[in-house]
Amino acid sequence: xxxxxxxxxxxxxxxxxxxxxxxxxxxxxxxxxxxxxxxxxxxxxxxxxxxxxxxxxxxxxxxxxxxxxxxxxxxxxxxxxxxxxxxxxxxxxxxxxxxxxxxxxxxxxxxxxxxxxxxxxxxxxxxxxxxxxxxxxxxxxxxxxxxxxxxxxxxx
Length: 156
Prior knowledge:
The chain is mainly α. The chain has two helices and no strands.
């Protein structure tokens, strides 16, 4: 008697959903990492720009155009950093949602997988009982046949 799990199709669907959620979380982590790197890069550029402006101020002659350009650039960088930080916060929220969905997909998969294992154990137990019953039946038939043959030899 071969084991056959009737919900195997459901288990495969849940496994594919779980794998899709895992890929989604991985992609979310990559996107979060990319935005985080962009924030770090922009922040580094901001520090460099600030250091350049301090360096310009320390000179004996001021280049107003260069200072204003640097100030304009820092304002632009600041807006870019703020936008990137907003995106970073949004990506973190999305990743948190994806992780929650991954946990739910794992739970749903585990439910069916646990059911399959329980049914497999029940099937193995039933098959073992059936084999024992058949072996007992064969033994009983052999015993009856041996008793009959002993009875026939005693009468002759």
